[in-house]
Give the backbone structure.
Amino acid sequence: MNEALNEIYLEKQDYASLRQSIKDHDSFESIQLASELEGHDLLDCRRISALLYRKNKKYKKSIDVSKKDELFQDAMETVAESKDPALAEDLMRFIMEMEDKELFAAMLYTCYELIKPDVALEVAWRSDLMEFVMPYFIQFVKDLSTRVETVQKSTDDIKKKEEKQQQERLDQPLAMNVEMMFPTQMGTGMPAIMPDPSMQMMGGVPNMNPMGNMNTMPNMN
């Protein structure tokens, strides 16, 4: 059904509806349609071909189709979606050869996260585009500083946690020694070692019998 609908849009040259249909639906032979539209006489059809390749993750093919028609914004968006630094560098060097300063600046903005700073600096230096690369480097330095601060804060938090754990380990043996020196009865809080009840003062001084009995000395009065 989607294929029939796309054919109707194509016949009526309703390219806006065709593009929207392609974005919304997957159940059709998209690669076959892309191949058919790639060599079409109309630019809109070739642009749809690049979109179909991009949707099927054939990013390099999509970029090549866009480059032939000098649809560089489409090509940049495809590179950004691919998240492939190699494709970003390849397209940037292609733009460098065209000596188009605005396109170079747009490339740095659109594919910022994929472009390596050394590559950007090299291309800018070779093409005398240093002023156009400065916004990129300002943003790069800012992001780098933010990442360093985040890592430093995380390191400090880990260090504080380790110091706290170490102090708790040092305090634990002291608490155990105190408990061993002053043991208590379970649940009473009273000393575990209590005097024998038989040891009572009955008018005399307790006499320790070697056999273990407690006797008091008689009163001589």
